[in-house]
Amino acid sequence: MNFPAELKYTKDHEWIRVDGEEATIGITEFAQHELGDIVYVDINTVGNKVAEGEVFGTVEAVKTVSDLFMPIDGTVLEINANLDANPELVNKDPYGEGWMVKIKLSKSADSLLSAEAYKDLVGA
């Protein structure tokens, strides 16, 4: 399983890639593996300020529907429109083309888990 070192992680299995004052967010390879085949992604929070721990959307898999939790306070700038027609991108490339949202950060992401800490959390 892949745990890119340049990313930060949450206990709820989201990842965040920080680039200055903006960040890209998605779900981890572990999460998509546990969910199974992703069939629908529902995110309609563009322009919204979303606090750390709040739900910013849902992901539907064959087995279940799961909430997506914001890893850090921020304003949603963009949603990955490619997921509307191709939700399976989350399974195929969770850290690349399967990203979910881009946000403007309201605070530092330093408090999130490192790749090693997340790896320990999921027992990998």
Automatic annotation (TrEMBL):
<dbReference type="InterPro" id="IPR002930">
    <property type="entry name" value="GCV_H"/>
</dbReference>
<keyword id="KW-0450">Lipoyl</keyword>
<comment type="subunit">
    <text>The glycine cleavage system is composed of four proteins: P, T, L and H.</text>
</comment>
<dbReference type="GO" id="GO:0019464">
    <property type="term" value="P:glycine decarboxylation via glycine cleavage system"/>
</dbReference>
<comment type="similarity">
    <text>Belongs to the GcvH family.</text>
</comment>
<dbReference type="InterPro" id="IPR003016">
    <property type="entry name" value="2-oxoA_DH_lipoyl-BS"/>
</dbReference>
<protein>
    <recommendedName>
        <fullName>Glycine cleavage system H protein</fullName>
    </recommendedName>
</protein>
<dbReference type="InterPro" id="IPR000089">
    <property type="entry name" value="Biotin_lipoyl"/>
</dbReference>
<dbReference type="InterPro" id="IPR017453">
    <property type="entry name" value="GCV_H_sub"/>
</dbReference>
<dbReference type="InterPro" id="IPR011053">
    <property type="entry name" value="Single_hybrid_motif"/>
</dbReference>
<dbReference type="InterPro" id="IPR033753">
    <property type="entry name" value="GCV_H/Fam206"/>
</dbReference>
<dbReference type="Pfam" id="PF01597">
    <property type="entry name" value="GCV_H"/>
</dbReference>
<feature type="domain" description="Lipoyl-binding">
    <location>
        <begin position="22"/>
        <end position="104"/>
    </location>
</feature>
<comment type="function">
    <text>The glycine cleavage system catalyzes the degradation of glycine. The H protein shuttles the methylamine group of glycine from the P protein to the T protein.</text>
</comment>
<dbReference type="GO" id="GO:0009249">
    <property type="term" value="P:protein lipoylation"/>
</dbReference>
<dbReference type="GO" id="GO:0005829">
    <property type="term" value="C:cytosol"/>
</dbReference>
<dbReference type="GO" id="GO:0005960">
    <property type="term" value="C:glycine cleavage complex"/>
</dbReference>
<feature type="modified residue" description="N6-lipoyllysine">
    <location>
        <position position="63"/>
    </location>
</feature>
